[in-house]
Amino acid sequence: MNTTGWIVLIVVVVVVIIAIIAIAMTVGRRRKLEHDREHAQELRAAAREDDLAAREREAKAARAAADAKQAEVDAQRRRQEADAHAAEAGDARASVDDKLARADKVDPDVRTDRHGNRVDDGRAADDTAAARPADGSTDAYSATDGRTDVDGQPRHAEPRIDAGGTTGDTDVPPPRPAR
Q1: Which stretches of sequence are listed as region Disordered (predicted)?
Q2: How many CA atoms lie within 13 A of 152 on its CB side?
Q3: Residue 135 · residue 142 · CB < 8 Å
């Protein structure tokens, strides 16, 4: 074979190789385009699912906002009802106080001023002051003169027999035996 034949053969082989490369690239591009189309469809499907989930979340948020608004309305209604009940209770208390004032005014044993208000004679204040400890402690025995018990009842020199024989007070002597 001569040189011209070799050159023609090389040119033909090169053209065939270029044709094969061109075909392979075209097929590869088509496959890539097809793959990109499929990937785009998958992304669109995922976007549709995400959109649906987002709409569901928005609907839940709207329901929660509506529930919160309803709770506010219910709370306002309950406040109004409570205010109305408080007003009724105030009216009832005023009525009771008025009736008690009228009863005090009519009762000959109760001292009242000219407006019908009770007048204390000072004895109740003295009794409560005597029952309270002067040193601020909670021990009623330390502040009293021994005539009253913790609950304000008179103390007896001897324990009560009907209460089991003793009251548990250690500062009260036991009863003397009868002779």
Answers
A1: 43-179
A2: 8
A3: yes
Degrees to nearest 5, angle at CA 146 with 142 and 150 = 65
Output the pTM of the full model. Answer: 0.38
Residues 146, 152: Cα–Cα separation, whole Å: 11
68 vs 60: CA distance, rounded Å: 12
Q: Are 104 and 112 in contact (CB under 8 A)?
A: yes
CA distance 145 to 141: 8
CA pair distance 179, 177, nearest whole angstrom: 7
Each residue of 78-135: pLDDT tens digit?
Answer: 999 999 999 999 999 999 988 888 888 788 887 877 776 777 755 544 444 444 455 5
What are the angstrom distances between the C-alpha of 94 and each of 98, 100, 102, 137? 6, 10, 12, 37
What 8-state DSSP symbol labels residue 148?
Answer: B
